[in-house]
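Example: Phage terminase-like protein, large subunit, contains N-terminal HTH domain.
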Amino acid sequence: MSTRDLFGDGPNAGETFGSQDRGQTVHFSLLEKIRGKSPAMRAISFLRQLRVPEGKMAGKPLKLAGFQRKFIKGALAPKVMVGVLSIGRGNAKTALSAGLSLGELVGAFDEDPQPRREVIFAARNRDQARIAFEFLLGFIAGLPEADQELFTIRRGSKLEVEFIDGSLARCIAADGKSILGGAPTLAVLDERAAWEPEKGDNLENAILSGLGKRDGRALIISTSAPSDSNTFSRWLDEPPPGTFVQEHRPAPGLPADDLDSLLEANPGAVEGIGSSPEWLVAQAERAIARGGSALSSFRNLNRNERVSTEDRSVLITADEWLSAEVNPDDLPPRDGPAILGVDLGGSRSMSAAAFYWPETGRLEALGVFPAKPGLADRGAADGVSDRYEQMHARGELLTMGENTVPTGPFMAEVVRRLEGQAPACIVGDRFRHAEFIEAMEAAGLSRVPFLWRGFGWKDGSEDIERFRRALFDGDVKVAPSLLLRFAFADAVTLVDPAGNHKLAKARSLGRIDAAAASVLAVAQGARMLAAPARKARVTWA
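Written out as structure tokens, the predicted fold is:
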């Protein structure tokens, strides 16, 4: 069989090639050279015999990088049913999984493999599945001619590779109906974070249920999802028993062109896989210069960060907010009148307060949860792992009350944080006016003016625009705050036909209370600065 026949796109496309005699003894040369007893060591031994199918290293023997060997050992370890890998784009995720798929197809991982093995390669759509299929065919094309004859290739309406012993590898798109009844021994879920939520979850559930029939394994690989609520993020944050997780995600809040964190998300760059460090830095600088969706996409795809790539409706991008963060030693002083923005949460949700000094641009924030449930349990329920506990350790998030946050003590704590300075005014939601008045009286703030604002199209659009303008003009300075950083990451705006904006959550479990309080405080501060100074009126006797 020639390489042209294997990859034919002409009149032979869709036909089958290779021997169909399944009664003969299979002599696959690569199996004779495999060393090791464990599936992981046998897999590593098998992959080292393959040749790179494409790229600048095409035709050379496959050399596994350190992060690839680590994933293989973890994902194929005993009692592991699911291996999850999150890494930046261009680090050979799909190529690695295609090589493992070929190994499972020929029975390379077990000394006594199951008969008629089945490999499923699932992707969001057919085009994405074809990429994996081409990698698989590329590995086959690099085998000796005698070994190539053991495979049957179908690339018409179906994308399938059949081994001479009846084992089958097929590529499918994210449609749950296409896998019902299957019993795969290995399933690869490629770029899982990009799957459509409903269809993707249906396909995943169908695949995982089928794996149980034959003690199969699943490999879930992808770059980071844009949010914590994505199913792929939940695999990383809350892995069930029998799951191996390997995530290459740098700490949040770092500059996009920070080389160390770029290499953390792209470990293949220093081992000759994918993009070079120089290219990554150059692309980061380009993304920074362009800003907007280009920067968000670079952070999500190349830095493997959980950043939404949909920037048309975000309140502000991650980098726009990070531009306001300064070293605590460089934070402006608490000079001039203080504006207090407050967002009272519901009976069991977060309440938040923001302090803003418009004359210096200093901004501070405080969040409060009720004590029950605990921060660890609440973080697990909201899909944010130990984030709330980190905020609590930094003094940005408190617990107060049992099942609800008492408004009076909450406002009293807010006043205590001002260290004796009386706020010039308090800004809050007009629909919670009665609760505000009671809380202010309980905290001894009855003499402080209360300004109510709506979160709808009218007041909300004005406040959002004033907040954005102050932020972009450099009139907002804040010490690094996880509370504010993640609040703004979850904040989006809904836009009406007239172009007015109002604040909303990017995800149902998002906590944007601190962002809402900050918008109220900064917008009121901007109004105060813009108001003309009153001149004394002179009267003649």
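The two ends are 112 Å apart (CA to CA).
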